[in-house]
UniProtKB/TrEMBL annotation:
Belongs to the cysteine-rich repeat secretory protein family. One of its GO terms (cellular component) is extracellular region. Residues 28-126, 132-234 form the Gnk2-homologous domain. It is found in: Secreted. The keyword Secreted applies. Keywords: Repeat, Secreted, Signal. The keyword Transport does not apply. It comes from the Eukaryota. This is Gnk2-homologous domain-containing protein. Residues 1-26 form the signal peptide. The lineage of its organism: Eukaryota, Viridiplantae, Streptophyta, Embryophyta, Tracheophyta. Its main location: secreted. CDD domains: Gnk2-like.
Length: 234
């Protein structure tokens, strides 16, 4: 990409990504949303289908880090961060599926995000569609010393990673960029794999370029279809 020839960007497939977020944010559970106002009754076919779906998503997600399925009128997916182990993926997805149903008890739709994964279900088939209904923004309380330069370099990195993730079969990319001789930013972009390459890029670009606080030294933008993360290298 000619416009980035003067930028030292190292694209990498895997790296450990740990964000030091605001103290009020739980170290593991990052957020959730009950995305359907309709409820179901205990013992109804919807609950039985949701029980089956939750177990099926656990099973399908572990091998590759992504799984999607439908059981009757329930539809769901599980997505693990692209740099976590199969064991950590399964542990996270299992926990996320249980917690999503607790936090949105009786609700016909929910999405929850953890450090290592996200889990989502709904009573409507949402596969292949960008979900713009919910966004969770988490950021470090500290600004970069040179906010203008940091934001510029961070934006450059995340936009490159957006392009990389959109053409990856895993819909995932990670990398880093130097701000100055003392500061390097790690970044990560990821989409759910039901999205096309075009829609993945559209989803990520929407997250990155929608007036988000990219001058913060760490942050996450979590959505129903794509996630963006960055932090400074310690």
């Amino acid at each position: 990409m000619a416009s980035f020839t003067n930028i030292s960007i190292c694209l990498i497939s895997l790296f450990t990504f740990t964000l030091f977020l605001h103290a009020s944010v739980a170290a593991d559970h990052l957020g959730y949303s009950c995305i359907n106002q309709q409820n179901f009754t205990v013992g109804t076919p919807y609950e039985l289908n949701l029980n089956k779906l939750t177990g099926l998503i656990d099973y399908l997600t572990q091998p590759s880090g992504y799984g999607q399925a439908s059981v009757g009128d329930t539809h769901g997916l599980g997505l693990c961060r692209g740099d976590v182990s199969s064991f950590d993926c399964l542990t996270c997805i299992t926990k996320a599926g249980i917690e999503a149903r607790k936090l949105c008890s009786g609700n016909k739709g929910a999405v929850t995000w953890y450090d290592y994964c996200m889990f989502k279900y709904l009573d409507q088939n949402f596969f292949g569609q960008i979900d713009t209904s919910v966004t969770v923004l988490l950021s470090n309380v500290n600004n970069a010393t040179n906010q203008t330069l940091f934001k510029q370099r961070n934006s450059e990195l995340l936009n490159v990673l957006s392009a990389q993730a959109s053409i990856s079969l895993e819909r995932y990319a990670g990398g880093e960029i130097a701000v100055d001789e003392n500061t390097t930013i790690h970044g990560l972009t990821q989409c759910t794999r039901d999205l096309s390459s075009y829609d993945c890029r559209k989803c990520l670009d929407g997250q990155i370029n929608s007036n988000k606080p990219l001058e913060k030294i760490g942050g996450r933008i979590l959505g129903g279809s794509c996630n963006v993360m960055w932090e400074i290298k310690s």
